[in-house]
Amino acid sequence: MVRGRFISFEGGEGAGKTTQIRRLSDRLSPLVGEVILTREPGGSPGAEALRDLLVCGDIDRWSPMSETLILYAAREDHLERLIRPALARGAWVLTDRFADSTRAYQGAGGGISAGFITALEQAVLGDGRPELTLILDLPVDEGLARAAARGGGEERFERKGRAFHERLRQGFLEIARSEPRRCVVIDAAASSEQVAEQVWVAVSGRLLAEAA
Ligand code: TMP
User: Domain residues of the chain, as ranges?
Assistant: First the structure.
């Protein structure tokens, strides 16, 4: 069966994922054929509807457990309707956040047990797991300041407080330490050009040589 490549971008607030994923897509497209750019929560019509419930409104609108369950409902829909069909026809799928965000935000940040999240991953993801994950790492204060300057009405998680964001930053770094073959930590405090170059070195070194 033809199978495409699956890459996720992860990181805390204001790390620049959205800019960097677009830059990577622009650079990859002429080389590899179909490139799909997507995001979580979201990426399919049903999951986009669930995104609005998650990212807007009061901080206490959902408990971390409710968030986890809504996120996994959205992820199942995203995988079934967009990601798996795209990989099956050989596309490269680049997603702005995926399952590591649940481990970091709801797990490390919100206190949901790693065992419960792993059980959901096993039930829902199956083989739908990224082969490369780029973790854009940035000091919390800098990320929150950048995110506040951006605005946009999707601030529910941004308002959860500095300690929450420090825990999730450490959560992402711990994921990178425990899965060094899949994860690359990128210094997101560098200039946009330098970050794009770090991303390109990781992608071309790990995946493009095999694709050629
Ligand atoms: P974004 O601002 O990067 O588009 O992400 C939307 C928000 O959703 C962000 O504050 C992080 C949060 N989120 C989680 O808490 N858990 C998850 O699993 C995902 C995918 C996102």
Answer: 6-211
In angstroms, the CA 15 to CA 88 distance is: 31
CA distances from 92 to 60, 86, 146 (A): 37, 8, 29
Closest ligand 1 atom, residue 157 Cα: 10
Question: Ligand 1 — pocket residues by CB below 6 A?
Answer: 13, 39-41, 55, 71, 97, 101-102, 105-106, 154, 157
Residue type, 156: R
Residue nearest to atom 8 of ligand 1 (CA): 55
Ligand 1, atom 9: nearest CA belongs to which residue? Answer: 157
pLDDT digits (tens, 9 = 90+) for 146-163: 999 988 777 899 999 999
Q: What tokens were used for 183?
A: 């994860």
Q: Whose CA is nearest to atom 19 of ligand 1?
A: 101
Interstrand relation of 132-137 and 5-11 (parallel, antiparallel or unpaired): parallel
Does residue 177 sit in helix, strand or coil? helix
* Structure-derived torsion over alpha carbons of residues 164, 166, 172, 174, reported in degrees to the nearest 10: -110
Share of the chain above pLDDT 90, in %: 90
Residue 101 CA, ligand 1 centroid: distance in Å: 7
What homologous superfamily does CATH list for 6-211?
A: P-loop containing nucleotide triphosphate hydrolases (3.40.50.300)
What are residue 37's phi and psi, to 5 degrees? -105, 125
Tell me the longest C-alpha to C-alpha distance in the chain: 49
